[in-house]
Design goal:
The chain is an alpha+beta fold. It has eleven helices and ten strands. The relative contact order is 0.20.
Length: 414
Amino acid sequence: MLEDFISLFQTGFYLKVWRFALVTWPVWLPLFLVSLLFHTWFSYKRREWLKKQGSILLEIRIPKNTDKSPAAMEMVIEGIWEDVIGSLTGAYLGGELRDVFSLEIASIGGEVKFFIWSFPKWKNIIESRIYTHYPGAEVIEVEDYAVKVIFDPEKMNLWGITTRLVKPDAYPIKTYIDFELDKGNKEQEEIVDPLAPVLEYLGTLKPGEQAWIQILIQGHRKEGFQDIRLFSKPDWREGIKKEIKKIIEEEPFIKPEVGQPASLFNLTKIQADTIASIQRNSAKLAFDSMLRVVYVAPKEIYVRTRGVGIIGSMRQFGSKTLNGIRPHKFIPGIVYPWEDFLDIRRRYNQRTLLEAYKRRSVFNVPFKHVFGKPYVLTTEELATIFHFPGATVTTPTLTRVPSKRAEAPSNLPI
């Protein structure tokens, strides 16, 4: 049996492959070793740089009666957009990276809270932005709720997902402008907040259950040599022209006559509105993003359908004519007994997801692109998914400030 298996690699084709590898090893072996050396060096320096930065978690307690539209949160997010790495020396010798932020909504036993995670140097800027646009809010530095969870597979269960976009980055999701939340003349009872179903569902969790929504963001840019890339990666706007051209030339309702150029006049109103949404979105600041969800609970109260419920509460952000956020990978996923002896693979995936969540890692080491690759969301899209709801959202367990505070302190930096 073993001899038959070995004989498979002794055919003429494989003998030529082995011969070629032996003859050319002075070329490919040094390249392989140099590549391995560079990868190890950059991984080490980036880990070291990230460790030096530290982190803070800010809980935002929103005003009881806020009348701000998501446009206020869009301006908050615009204030933390930063795509600069630094010098080449810093990138190659110091391991410097673009700053990472995490916008989070967590339900701790049904109590719903808003958080922003960042490097400590951003604390004053985030505070000043929040106080400027939400004068009645409270911003408090708190202990990390995720770090408190120590996963014990014998006593608890953990489920999660990573996400991706349904269509290319050029297409926006359904935003607060599409829901007409940018119009300040609407009566409270007429306001339909797309975040309301998410908050209401998170508020139904029972004591002991925890569900976390994490939106990791990093300023988007065209990547090149400064990003440790031999070949450049284009800006996301490169794909916008391609998608608009595709709609005009390949998907018009009325096909132009032979020899006639495609025109906007051949499009339906829906197609024209789609192009308008793409163009509006392209004018906004963009972030590389990853939305992921984690649900964890003791085995005796763990509810298998919780994860599906969280995803279902986010469907309103999608549109057939625009874009949407959909599950990419389920963790731990469906693993059959014969595929995973003693649940080793299942538990490894659960621990990896939890550790990646705690470290807010997806763009860089140690969990770069774990369970999925980032996609592009603009400030408008992010403000739709993460904003402080008004009085129309009546989730009783949503943490709010009971009374209005004074204006923001005058000594905060702008």
